[in-house]
Amino acid sequence: MPHRIITIDGPAGAGKTTVSTLLAQDLGCIRVDTGALYRGVAYEIMQQDIAWENDAVLKRFLSTLDLQFHLEKEGLRLFSSGKDITDQIRTSRITMLASAASAKPDVRSALLALQRGIAGQQDAVFEGRDMGTVVFPDAAVKFFLFADLSVRARRRYDETQDENKDFSRVMAEMAKRDTDDTQRAQAPLKPAPDAIHIDASFLTPRQVVDKMRTYL
Question: I need a labelling partner for 62 at 20 to 30 A (CA). Which of 47, 105, 125, 204 fits?
Answer without folding.
Answer: 125
